[in-house]
Design a protein that fits this description.
Number of helices: 3
Structural class: alpha/beta
Mean pLDDT: 90
Largest sheet: 5 strands, parallel
Oligomer: single chain
Radius of gyration: 14 Å
Distance between the termini: 22 Å
Length: about 140
């Protein structure tokens, strides 16, 4: 990782900083401790928690994926969900006092995908990640 861009990939063999196919990512359990007890830090103890810290230290997150039947693969969906909930710490979600946006470098997300992709998936990812410090979410088809 160079600090400018952090690359997540959903399958082995793609150049990346974190290969989601090798990480066992647990689903968000809705504990909201990232907003209350550990503001800006996920309570779940799995390899993706440390990856999220690295993502927040980068200016851009690039998610490289191959949609499965036109939908977001489950491992990518879990990563986006977890990151989305972390980004809520930088908003007033649930009455939360937001963390300062300037405390993280992350400002944009680029989703690079191969093959067909359902239009509604773009809006779901956009809605999940365009919050807090994220001002730009782009989609690029390879």
């Amino acid at each position: 990782m160079d600090g400018e861009r952090f690359v997540l990939a959903d399958s082995p063999g793609k150049p990346c900083d974190a290969d989601l196919s090798t990480l066992r990512i647990r689903r968000c359990r809705g504990c909201v401790k990232c907003l209350t007890n550990h503001k800006g830090r996920c309570e779940i103890k799995d390899p993706f928690t440390d990856v999220m810290d690295e993502i927040l230290r980068s200016e851009c997150l690039e998610i490289r994926m191959s949609p499965e039947h036109g939908t977001v693969p489950d491992r990518v969906r879990k990563a986006v969900e977890r990151l989305s909930n972390m980004l809520d710490a930088y908003t007033d979600c649930g009455g939360n006092v937001p963390l300062p946006i300037d405390s993280v470098r992350l400002r944009s997300v680029e989703v690079v995908y191969e093959g067909g992709f359902a239009d509604r998936m773009e809006s779901e990812i956009n809605g999940a990640l365009r919050k807090g410090p994220i001002s730009d979410v782009r989609f690029t088809q390879e």
